[in-house]
Automatic annotation (TrEMBL):
Pfam family, one: 2-oxoacid_dh
EC numbers on record: 2.3.1.-
Name of the protein this chain belongs to: Dihydrolipoamide acetyltransferase component of pyruvate dehydrogenase complex
Family, as annotated: Belongs to the 2-oxoacid dehydrogenase family.
Length: 552
């Protein structure tokens, strides 16, 4: 049997007559020419060759396959970078076109990116938690046919490889001095690179742990958080075992002081952190008012009693027969179950009213280009006017991961109140309830609107001052909870009486209960004038207080 041999090569050397690597094995163990990564690894194990040939010599071009870079494309307006949440594949996996490759977090939404072609995963660009710029390489995929890519062009070797037996380790006899202590920790060879993710390195710094003193159990010797925990725990155990045996036992166990806990932000909150940091670079101004929603609430009750059959979640047998006839003659099919509903909130009516107000003030159908999230303020900004009214809605994630999301409802101007209610129900169904992941919104909800409407009334608050998202939109509104307040039936007469211009007889000034709510809008003061925002809010208020215009 041959002793283990080491294959040494000099960078840039050439082989005059290159032969299959199998011919290098004089022992006859290898009979099939080496043409894949698996064969190279097999040869490296037999001859003790390092398994990273790209650092020692360039690979020979594979005439049967081509390594193609998979570039991260822009997945939404104003997106400049994405965070890798998790890889759905690993190196060596065989994938088909449109198979999911990676899940990324961008613009406070989690998106699965699929492969543009079939092949084998050659390499991955980063680990979970890493940030990638738009336009950078996500991974490299080896596809059938074509030539190898330029950066993997063959660099021929001039001199023949030298096979030299690897020296056998010297025999050693165990001794008490060379036996490691159970409490001692393994250390790395001086100068060796410590493999660890940024989150793991931060975790190590928080616990004052030198990564070089820990032997990683992850892939390729990567140090994980579990390794650090085990290292810290072993240190505590060793310290307790080193206490003198004759130390007197305390009469009562001392109470350990409470310690603070450091919690690393998850992907959702990191995205929110970056977005809000960019938002506060925008000069804000706000406008607040009180809106009477009594009439539009009565309209809501009327609509809730007359929901079209294709939107209803619960149908009676007679309704099902009627719907079947409608589908036969008009083709109006029933919407998907996760879009069906039996009640309507005020939000779809308020969105429809806001769309009508945007028609009167077209600056709010525009977005700023480039958006604030793209980087420092541009010296030559412009406005991009959209042909449709795209309004984002703010949703809070009820799962432990938390986070605020702003999916967009497109073409509100051409959508019915029932269609808007159906889409809002669908969005609520997409929010996770148990895991710590971010919601995966389909493409119809991705991107940014020209306005955002946030409903804090569902929590119970009356007033808030919203922050303009850094997506290029110009304004955001927040509505508080609905409450009952007494109001004069004849406001004009009450004002004249209050001013002393008129006297009121007994019973002339009648008071009635009205439903009201506080609203506050914030805008980007670099582009929007204060009077422009005030006019938008007042137009919206008039439509809400006189909702008959919604039927026009």
């Amino acid at each position: 049997m041959l002793a283990p041999a080491r294959l040494t090569m000099r960078r840039g050397a050439r082989i005059a007559n290159p032969r299959p690597l199998s011919s290098l094995a004089s022992s006859g163990r290898l009979h099939t020419p080496v043409s894949s990564r698996g064969r190279v690894q097999e040869l490296s194990r037999r001859f003790n060759v390092p398994t990273t040939p790209s650092r020692l010599f360039s690979a020979t071009a594979n005439a049967a396959g081509q390594v193609k870079p998979f570039v991260l494309a822009d997945i939404g307006e104003g997106i400049t970078e994405c965070e890798i949440v998790k890889w759905l594949v690993k190196e060596g996996d065989v994938i088909e076109e449109f198979d999911p490759v990676v899940e990324v977090m961008s613009d406070k939404a989690s998106v699965e990116i699929t492969s543009p072609f079939s092949g084998t995963i050659a390499s991955l660009a980063g680990a979970a938690g890493d940030m990638l710029k738009v336009g950078s390489v996500l991974c490299r995929i080896e596809v059938e046919g074509g030539e190898a890519e330029a950066d993997a062009a063959p660099a021929a070797v001039e001199s023949a490889p030298e096979l030299s037996p690897a020296p056998e380790p010297p025999a050693t006899t165990p001794s008490s001095s060379s036996t490691p202590s159970p409490s001692s920790s393994p250390s790395r060879t001086s100068g060796a690179e410590v493999l660890a993710t940024p989150a793991t390195r931060r975790f190590a710094r928080e616990h004052n742990v030198d990564l070089a003193s820990i032997a990683g159990t992850g892939r390729d010797g990567r140090v994980t958080k579990e390794d650090i925990w085990n290292f810290v725990s072993e240190g505590a155990s060793a310290a307790s075992s080193a206490a003198p045996a004759f130390a007197p036992a305390p009469t009562s166990a001392p109470t350990a002081p409470a310690e603070s806990t450091t919690i690393t932000l998850n992907s959702t909150r990191k995205a929110m952190y970056r977005a809000m940091s960019a938002s506060l670079q925008i000069p804000h101004f706000s406008y607040s008012d009180v809106v009477d929603v009594t009439e539009i609430e009565r309209m809501r009750l009327t609509l809730a009693a007359n929901i079209p059959l294709q939107y209803r979640k619960t149908l009676k047998p007679a309704d099902e027969a009627t719907l079947a006839r409608h589908e036969q003659w008009s083709g109006a099919a029933r919407v998907d179950p996760n879009r069906q509903f039996d009640r309507i909130t005020l939000l779809p009516l308020l969105l429809k009213a806001l769309s009508l107000a945007m028609s009167e003030h077209p600056i709010f159908t525009c977005t700023l280009s480039p958006p604030p999230a793209a980087g420092p303020a541009s010296t030559d900004p412009s406005l991009v006017r959209r042909p449709t009214h795209d309004i984002s809605v703010a949703l809070s994630n009820p799962s432990p991961a938390g986070g605020l999301f702003t999916p967009v409802l497109r073409s509100v101007n051409s959508s019915s109140v029932f269609d808007l209610a159906s889409r809002l129900v669908h969005l609520q169904s997409l929010l996770p309830t148990s895991d710590n992941g971010a919601p995966k919104f389909p493409p119809e909800y991705q991107g940014a609107g020209t306005l955002t409407l946030s409903n804090i009334g569902v929590i119970g608050g009356r007033t808030t001052h919203p922050v303009v998202p850094p997506t290029g939109q110009l304004a955001i509104g927040a509505i508080g909870r609905t409450r009952v307040e007494p109001r004069f039936v004849d406001e004009a007469k009450a004002k004249r009486v209050a001013s002393g211009l008129e006297e009121a007889g007994a019973g002339e000034l009648k008071v009635e209960p009205r439903l009201v709510m506080d609203v506050t809008f914030s805008a980007d003061h670099r582009v929007v004038e204060g009077v422009e925002l005030a006019r938008l809010v007042e137009s919206w208020k008039r439509i809400v207080e006189n909702p008959a215009r919604l039927a026009a």
